[in-house]
Amino acid sequence: MYNELHQVFEDALKDFNAANLDGETYKSRMAHGIKIVKYDEDDSVVIYNTAKGGDYYEEISEEEYTMFFNDGWELSVCNMCLTKYTNRLKVIEEKIKLEINGRNNSKYLDFLKETRKETLKRYYIITQKKNNYEN
User: Fold this and answer.
1) pTM of the model as a whole
2) How does the average pLDDT of the chain come out, rounded?
C-alpha cells in the first residue's frame, strides 16, 4: 500500500520496462500506454492514460488512482492494460459478427481474425507479467 503518488513514481523509476520520457521541466515514465509525470515546478505527480483511445493523454480517474495506491505501479499498469485488451477484444468480436452477417468480406474477416490473434497474444504476455508481480 502506498501513501502518496511520489512513492508510486519512485516505483515507476525502478521499472526497467518503462520508457524514460524526461523533459526539461518534468520527469516521466511510460509503460503500456500509462504515463506517470512528476513536474519540477510544483512537485506534483499525475498519471495519464492513452489506452482510452486517441493520440492524447487523459488523466486517470479517482478509482484508478486508488488502484495505484493499493497495488503499486507495475501491477496497476498490468491491470489497466488487461482492461484495454479486453475492451479491444469485445470490439473485434462484435465487428466479426457484423461482418459475417453483413458483407462477409473475406479479406476484412482475415484482418479481424489476425488482429484478434495478436491482441490475445499481447493479453497472454501481460497476464504472465501480472502473475510474476503477484508472486
Assistant:
1) 0.84
2) 89
